[in-house]
């Protein structure tokens, strides 16, 4: 008999786990306190850029991100085919720009180690750089070009993923108000605000910035904290086309096929406050003009904020909880939820099916890794 899996959280991680588990034959129910994709997932710029986002070196987290990028072409095509929903998926490559000669050594160091891990990146400058991206400021000295990186339009992709889940037989319950784990020993029982109880064999907790709420129930430290990320978007239909994702030390700019350019991100600690601040958006605007001069004087037509679930050590929580083996966590993905969704879904399904999971993954991303620090 197929196991019944309950997933708390209808963001991209929860929906991805639901889709993968359903494809493997499990009965799956997703419980969402609000609306699917309404938190960090829908606010994301949709960058699939492990080389640009991980600049220090090829640690286990980078390798996880890179593996997920390799899964994406087939993953997104499955979602598109099953859902019938169109969404933008663009293999534009990226440019990480530098303004000063002192930064070139750092770019070259990154190019060298990234070449060993599948990047065909190269340093471009001068006429070649401005041929690739004509609208860039002439103050830009050089850039690390990484052809392998892509981006996706997150709002449409979340909608497609939700639809693919529904079509494949995932039961999705939204607007539950609150969702609380009340039993996890002999079976799983989850209670909603109206006292409806949902029963299952296993639980996957994918509650993003709210994952810490399970700490007291499970008797386990779950140090996941909300980091407010503020983003803005410009209309660029009449401007020179921007062909690549552009990263710089203060943020990023991503041009979308719908004639907009997404700019982010201004981050701060504000609890669960998702309001947009003038200071946060002004910081973005000041840097945008230095990257693309055509943005000088333009006002964003839209600004928004999302809560990014950051763990204490910066790495996500993926896998079973020690002492509560019916409970698995898939949370704490910080800025990489969109990128890491296919690999997280694969790993969660592998754990549930008792398949082989690399020891490096089990140790580095274990939800129980902070237990020894809790006195």
TrEMBL record:
Alphabetized SUPFAM superfamilies for the sequence: FAD-linked reductases, C-terminal domain (SSF54373), FAD/NAD(P)-binding domain (SSF51905)
GO cellular component, one term: cytoplasm
Catalytic EC class: oxidoreductase
Superkingdom of the source species: Bacteria
Keyword hit for Oxidoreductase: yes
UniProt keyword Metal-binding, yes or no: no
EC number: 1.4.3.19
Keywords: Oxidoreductase, Thiamine biosynthesis
GO terms, molecular function: flavin adenine dinucleotide binding; glycine oxidase activity
Alphabetical GO biological process terms: thiamine biosynthetic process; thiamine diphosphate biosynthetic process
Domain FAD dependent oxidoreductase: 5-350
InterPro entries in alphabetical order: FAD-dep_OxRdtase, FAD/NAD-bd_sf, Gly_oxidase_ThiO
Reactions catalysed: glycine + O2 + H2O = glyoxylate + H2O2 + NH4(+)
Pfam families noted in UniProt: DAO
Pathway assigned in UniProt: Cofactor biosynthesis; thiamine diphosphate biosynthesis
Membrane-traversing stretches: none
Protein's name in the database: glycine oxidase
Origin organism lineage: Bacteria, Bacillati, Bacillota, Bacilli, Bacillales
